[in-house]
Structure formats: structure tokens, C-alpha cells
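Sharing a chain and its predicted structure for anyone who wants a worked example. Both blocks are below, sequence first, C-alpha cells second.
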Amino acid sequence: MPRLEPGMARIRVKDLRLRTFIGIKEEEINNKQDVLINLTILYPAVDAVRDNDIDHALNYRTITKAIIGHVEGNRFALLERLTQEILDLVMVNEAVRYAEVEVDKPHALRFAESVSITLAGHR
């Protein structure tokens, strides 16, 4: 992850729990499962800090709502695909300089709490 430079802000969304169809086994294809999503987003926040105005800030609520709609409204065979599509939604915003998305699939393995995939993008 890039170092946080002066004037930049780091937004973290932690443990966004959603339900979706994720997997390749018949049981996974037919039944929604929980996924946990963690986001880290870096963007220049000088104008937002100076003006104290949402129009100059990166609206994490808008981004999160787009993610919720996409994840809950689609089906995914692989965690890699789901993670990339979430990253793409975050990177649509031109203000985003760097983003990291981690998606956990709880109880994907018999003796593990979860399995996760992390992908990153930058401009």
C-alpha cells in the first residue's frame, strides 16, 4: 500500500457484510452466502478539508451503496472475479488514486475461519 502523503486521505470501510451467490459447487450456486468486504481508498482531500464540503470529498456512502447493489444483485463463481468487480466500481471515481479491496468468504475451508482475495488498483 502506498505511503499516505500530505494532502491525501485514507478511507477504510471495514467488514461490510453482504449476501450473494458465490462459488462453483451446486450448493453455492443455489444458496446465498455471506461475504465480508474491506476497502482502503486513497484520494486527495485538500479541497474537502479546506472547504468542509461534501462536494469536494470522496463520498464513501455512494461508493458503498454501488457495491451493495452490485454484489447482492449478481452471481459470482470466483472470489477473484467478485473482488475485481468491486475494485472496478471503486476506481470509476476519478479522485481515487489507490484502492485495495479484500473479500473474505467465511467458512470456505473446513478448518479455516475464511478465505480471502485482495486486489489493488492505482492511477
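Comments welcome. The chain has a mean pLDDT of 95.
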